[in-house]
Amino acid sequence: MEKTMMFFILLLIIMIAVFNLVSMQVMLVNEKTSDIAILRTLGATSGMIMRIFLIQGGLIGTMGIFLGAMFGIVLASHVTAVVNLLQNIFHIQFISADIYFLNYLPSKLLWSDVWHIVSVSLGLCFIATLYPAYRAAQVQPAEALRYE
User: Fold this and answer.
1) Residue 131, class by beta-carbon neighbours within 10 Å (0-12 exposed, 13-18 middle, 19+ buried)?
2) Under a CB-based contact definition with an 8 Å cutoff, are residues 99 and 12 in contact?
3) Domain spans of the chain?
């Protein structure tokens, strides 16, 4: 039950990152409206414009997921050493043997959990790029360039 709840908590954190990706892509579409209109007047189809923003959002999300997974794997593999280092630097005791049964932080890395989190994150990332890409594809050149 604890593992399931931790998955849902992590999923909520991932959803915040996905909303950040969507808002960044929407702001980019709003800033580049005139550039999109110029591409459309030069002959780019709406499918081409949509693919540009899908690829851009996918690359940003994939790089973020890859770097986050690598950092998380390294941290989970060495969590006891990191906690001991922090305890020595700040001269505090995070986990006291007087209060807890343990005096270290146990960690077990399950590759199936890593795979589930990465795959759900990738799926949400690519779903998140659909709306901004669709908005970019719907830009009408005449309307976008009217006041330029």
Assistant:
1) middle
2) no
3) 2-145
Left, alpha or beta for 109 (phi > 0: left; psi -120 to 50: alpha)? beta
Token pair of 82, please?
A: 């990191």
* Long-range contacts of 33-36, Cβ-Cβ distance < 8 Å, separation of 24 or more: 33/139, 33/144, 34/144, 34/145, 34/148, 36/136, 36/139, 36/144
Quick one: angle between helices 2-31 and 33-41, nearest 10?
70
Amino acid at 55: I
> What pTM was computed for the model?
0.80
State the pLDDT at residue 102.
67
pLDDT of residue 129: 94
Contacts of 84 by beta carbon, 8 Å cutoff, 6+ apart: 104
Give helix then strand counts, H and E, for the chain: 7, 0
In sequence order, what are the residues at sequence separation of 6 or more whose Cβ sits closer than 8 angstroms to the Cβ of residue 87? 93, 94
